[in-house]
């Protein structure tokens, strides 16, 4: 069975739109730098920055992020012997060439997997202990993210948001350092001075990156979009014939108490969670089975 590939489904497009305020802030910062460096060509730096987004489509970028940002390693010969046949089965069902994907390993005791950029499919060392068909279903879910374009959009948004996020991070760390110095001095005037400096830094951050004012609204919406993309990847996995095996993995997580931990985390944590609860994912997979009365593999 070959799943018709649908690039950039609605949740992914929604995520891209939510990134617009931050991207505009980045563009403003790049423009200010360009104005200081080449004032006679105000357009140069913003245009170069926009064009630089093409770097996320360079395969080497995926490898760099996998190694430098996510600390993923290449599989050993034994691990590759387990994963490659399973990935070939998944790609055969999806009608894509398995050579396009790079297998990577996360050293973790938690069962986990991830898709990065346009090529990386990674699983944790704990996930390697799953039964073969369950592990194959996990790989199908991650390939589903690639087929829907989720990972490419996320990487593109991350790249364009870098300048704005870097400025905010710098301001936060500087403010924390100033407050720490004020506390070490210990006098009331030192604390008051540190508070004044922090307020000034916050004002600079807002002027340089106005998007920070929208964080309380954007963050929950981005999390909601992420949860929708997870359900979409589950759907693709089911369409490829891995619904029953994916259900087994989700039920395993339920038995391990994942949903109980989520419930104890509180409303705010649930609103900002990047993944739906296992119970919700299981319910959605069962709903897909009901209309025709046939199995998820049909």
Helix and strand arrangement:
Layout: H1 10-18, H2 20-37, H3 44-52, H4 59-69, H5 77-94, E1 102-106, E2 113-116, E3 120-124, H6 132-148, H7 150-185, H8 188-208, H9 215-255, H10 258-264, H11 267-271, H12 278-289
Parallel strand pairs: 1-3
Antiparallel strand pairs: 2-3
Helix pairs in contact: 1-7, 1-9, 2-3, 2-7, 5-6, 6-9, 7-8, 9-12
Structure overview:
By secondary structure, the chain is mainly alpha-helical. It has a single domain (10-153, 217-289), classed as 2-Layer Sandwich (Zincin-like), CATH 3.30.2010. The protein is 68% helix and 5% strand. The chain is built from twelve helices and three strands. The protein has helices at residues 10-18, 20-37, 44-52, 59-69, 77-94, 132-148, 150-185, 188-208, 215-255, 258-264, 267-271, 278-289, and strands spanning 102-106, 113-116, 120-124. A three-stranded mixed sheet has the order 1-3-2. Helix 6 (132-148) runs antiparallel to helix 9 (215-255). The chain is globular, with a radius of gyration of 23 Å. Residues 291-298 have low confidence and may be disordered. Its main location: membrane. This is Peptidase M48. It comes from Lentzea cavernae. It is a multi-pass membrane protein. Keywords: Cell membrane, Hydrolase, Membrane, Metal-binding, Metalloprotease, Protease, Transmembrane, Transmembrane helix, Zinc.
Q: Strand-residue fraction?
A: under 5%
Helix content: 55-70%
How many structural domains can be distinguished in the coordinates?
1
Radius of gyration, taken over Cα atoms and rounded to an integer in Å: 23 Å
Q: Averaged pLDDT, please?
A: 88
Continuous helix count: 12
Order of helices and strands: HHHHHEEEHHHHHHH
Q: Spell out the CATH superfamily.
A: Metalloproteases ("zincins"), catalytic domain
Please give the largest β-sheet. Answer: 3 strands, mixed
Text of the CATH class: Alpha Beta
Number of strand segments: 3
Keywords: Cell membrane, Hydrolase, Membrane, Metal-binding, Metalloprotease, Protease, Transmembrane, Transmembrane helix, Zinc
Organism: Lentzea cavernae
Subcellular location: Cell membrane
Family: Belongs to the peptidase M48 family.
